[in-house]
Design goal:
CATH superfamily of the largest domain in chain A: Histidine kinase-like ATPase, C-terminal domain
Number of strands of chain B: 11
Number of domains of chain B: 2
Structural class of chain A: alpha+beta
CATH class of the largest domain in chain B: Alpha Beta
Order of helices and strands of chain A: HHEEEEEHHHEHHEEHEEHEEH
Strand content of chain A: 15-25%
Strand order of the largest sheet of chain A: 2-1-5-4-3
Distance between the termini of chain B: 25 Å
CATH class of the largest domain in chain A: Alpha Beta
Number of helices of chain B: 8
Low-confidence stretches of chain B: none
Radius of gyration of chain B: 18 Å
CATH architecture of the largest domain in chain B: 3-Layer(aba) Sandwich
Number of domains of chain A: 3
Largest interface: A-B, 32 and 25 residues
Largest sheet of chain A: 5 strands, antiparallel
Number of helices of chain A: 10
Structural class of chain B: alpha/beta
Oligomer: heterodimer
Chain lengths: 477, 220
């Protein structure tokens, strides 16, 4: 089963904005939580110390008051103590005054009767009292006669630190959405140039292949733009090439079509039967030429498809192919009184036999076309050092040296011919040669007259690498 | 009327020549630029039909070269390229008209006649000479309103003579106007055609100038 083709996003696609937002938010919240915890811990510890200090101070104050009264009256009454206690600590401070001999001299209103501290020790401690944990403090007067035990429920302290924590949390709650908004805006702004470029590309009409303007995009994505622009440049040149080729092909077809039309009109206005007969023959010849041109265009179009021919490679007996093609053209040569001779020994190349047949056919056809009656065309195949040389020579009209570089151009015509070809034959020859890693040389023909085309095939191992180098296959297609 | 056809394609060249000949024109056909230039400069053509895509010297070069040498006859371009750019370039280089492949032979003939007519400074395709009215486009000759049936050669001969009333044209002049290269001309062909024309249009129209040739009387 294949994946749905129309899926708008690849499974691995992700949003840079969302990921950035999530990461930044997680980092910020994490940092913030850590610092809040540290601050809360420190604040809690500092306030505990303060509370403890205040508890101890109260205890000393109460003890000195109680000691003073005890020495005067022999007992401890409530009044001054309650006043003193009520002043600051109201209902959440509890204390007991104990005598050295174990008597409970006084207990503040609401305080339990059991001692807060089990032994007679001094200092801070914890106890389980009414409403949870209590913080306690005990101390003796200077004469070691009276002990005060002070207790304060921890819930009172918790309320204060809880209040503090609440305020921190409230700040967080208010600042979190603000921070989210701020981060989103910042990320949006940072990514905007990339998105603008993407939208500019998306908004283009299909034919618009201008370079993408990378101005304003961050340097991190510049390589992407560069590659995109390289690709666009390649597409542009391919399309331009195709466009020109299509236009040329259409124009080339106009000439045989014009000939057909002219002859058909001549038939319609013929003055006698022989004129009519000849025009019919010529009109049919025009149709045949159009057909040949279309065939050649199709061959060239097929050759232009990258990689299409590589799986058809095999060991090919070039000599056998040449013999076949010479036999094919024997009649055409005889009709023009041209001597068509094939010579050569074994010639094995690794390639596409169909394409190589087309190459041979085009070279032989070309030679016969541009050789006048009574001429000679030779097809030879022989090894030269480690390469194989296929040579098609004639003693025909030849090609001027200054035109030799151009004769492989599509639709180039160098000379007048009684039966012009498609103008594509040599383009096809060169294309097939290239695909086989071979080179095509043009030179003078037989005895310095006419033309010779030499196709030089490299040794097999090099022909493979040369061919694959001249047509790098697309990766992943 | 004799014209020069420059077309490298054998099939199209042959068809065009035949078609124009059926229209009563005399056509010399050459296949390359150099021959065309020599032919144009050494013969008296009413017009030149020029294909742009020629091997060797291309049509545009030939066109410019001819115009530079002061060649004043109408030149019509035959081309497969029909973009405005190509047409503008051709017209600017001195072409009088453009014919796009594949063309209609009737239209091609009409355009050649029109170009020749304009070149000769005439607005109409009609030639009037006394009581004879010639419609060149339809190749109809009337005398006092009566249609006179002429063969292609007779028609061409009549046009050649009427083109220069009062001027004596030799037999060679007339043969060149009537026959393209390579046509075999019977030694007495012109005399025969003149004889037929006199029979059909009256003895007084064409005067024989002893030892020189023929001429049509100039009208006052």
């Amino acid at each position: 089963m294949s994946a749905p083709v129309s899926s708008p996003r690849l499974p691995c696609a992700w949003s840079l904005k969302r990921r950035l937002l999530a990461l930044l938010l997680a980092a910020t919240v994490g940092m913030w939580l850590t610092s809040a915890a540290i601050i809360y811990y420190d604040a809690e510890k500092a306030s505990q110390d303060l509370f403890d200090q205040s508890l101890a101070e109260t205890a000393h104050l109460l003890l000195s008051l109680a000691g003073h009264e005890y020495h005067k009256t022999g007992s401890v009454s409530a009044n001054p103590l309650v006043d003193s206690a009520n002043g600051q600590h109201a209902a959440y401070l509890f204390f007991q005054i104990w005598h050295r001999d174990g008597r409970l001299l006084y207990t503040a209103k609401g305080s339990p009767y059991a001692p807060f501290v089990e032994d007679n020790s001094s200092g801070y401690g914890w106890m389980d009292g009414a409403g949870g944990r209590w913080r306690t403090y005990a101390t003796w007067n200077a004469a070691k006669e009276l002990q005060i035990q002070v207790g304060e429920p921890a819930s009172h302290r918790g309320a204060i630190s809880g209040d503090f924590a609440n305020r921190i949390a409230l700040f967080a709650l208010v600042s979190l959405p603000l921070m989210l908004l701020l981060l989103w805006l910042l990320i949006h702004r940072a990514i905007a140039p990339i998105q603008a470029s993407a939208q500019a590309v998306a908004a283009r009409v299909p034919g618009d292949l201008r370079d993408v303007d990378p101005a304003g995009a961050p340097i991190e994505v510049q390589p992407l733009f560069e590659e995109l622009n390289h690709l666009l440049a390649r597409v542009r040149s391919t399309l331009e090439h195709e466009r020109r080729f299509t236009a040329d092909a259409a124009h080339e077809l106009r000439t045989p079509l014009a000939a057909v039309r002219a002859h058909v009109q001549v038939i319609g206005r013929a003055r006698d039967a022989s004129e009519r007969r000849e025009a019919v023959t010529d009109a049919l010849a025009g149709v045949a030429r159009s057909g040949h041109l279309v065939d050649q265009l199709l061959i060239l179009a097929r050759l232009d498809q990258d990689g299409a021919q590589e799986q058809d490679r095999e060991d090919v007996d070039l000599n056998g192919l040449a013999r076949e093609q010479c036999a094919e053209y024997a009649d055409a040569a005889r009709a023009k009184n041209i001597e068509l001779a094939g010579m050569g020994g074994a010639g094995m190349v690794f390639g596409d036999p169909v394409a190589l047949s087309i190459l041979l056919r085009n070279l032989i056809d070309n030679a016969i076309r541009y050789t006048p009656a009574g001429g000679r065309v030779e097809v030879t195949i022989h090894p030269v050092k480690d390469v194989l040389e296929l040579c098609v020579s004639d003693n025909g009209v030849g090609v001027a040296p200054e035109q030799r570089a151009r004769i492989f151009d599509r639709f180039f015509r160098g000379a007048v011919s009684e039966a012009p070809g498609s103008g594509l034959g040599l383009s096809i020859v060169r294309r097939i040669a290239e695909q086989h890693g071979a080179r095509v040389d043009v030179d003078d023909g037989i005895n310095g007259r006419g033309t010779s085309f030499r196709v030089i095939f490299p040794p097999r191992d090099r022909s493979l690498s040369a061919a694959s180098m001249s047509h790098p296959r697309r990766v992943g297609s | 009327m004799r014209i020069l056809l420059v077309e490298d394609d054998p099939l199209l060249g042959k068809g065009t020549r035949l078609g124009l000949e059926q229209d009563g024109l005399t056509v010399d056909w050459v296949q390359d630029g150099q021959t065309a230039e020599t032919a144009a400069l050494t013969h008296d053509y009413a017009a030149v039909l020029l294909d742009l895509g020629l091997p060797g010297q291309d049509g545009m070069t030939l066109l410019r070269s001819l115009r530079r040498r002061g060649y004043a006859q109408p030149i019509l371009i035959i081309t497969a390229r029909h973009e405005v750019f190509d047409r503008v370039a051709g017209l600017d280089a001195g072409a009088d008209d453009f014919v796009i492949k594949p063309f209609d032979l009737e239209e091609l003939g009409a355009r050649v006649r029109a170009a020749v007519r304009r070149g000769a400074g005439r607005a109409s395709d009609e030639i009037v000479h006394g009581d004879i009215v010639i419609d060149r486009s339809r190749r109809v000759v009337r005398q006092r309103g009566r249609v006179v049936s002429l063969t292609t050669r007779e028609f061409a001969l009549l046009l050649a003579l009427l083109a220069r009333p009062g001027q004596v044209l030799t037999r060679a002049n007339l043969e060149e106007a009537l026959y393209g290269w390579g046509s075999e001309v019977e030694s007495n062909a012109i005399e025969v055609h003149i004889h037929h024309l006199r029979r059909k249009l009256g003895r007084d129209l064409i005067r024989t100038v002893h030892r020189l040739g023929y001429c049509v009387r100039e009208l006052e």
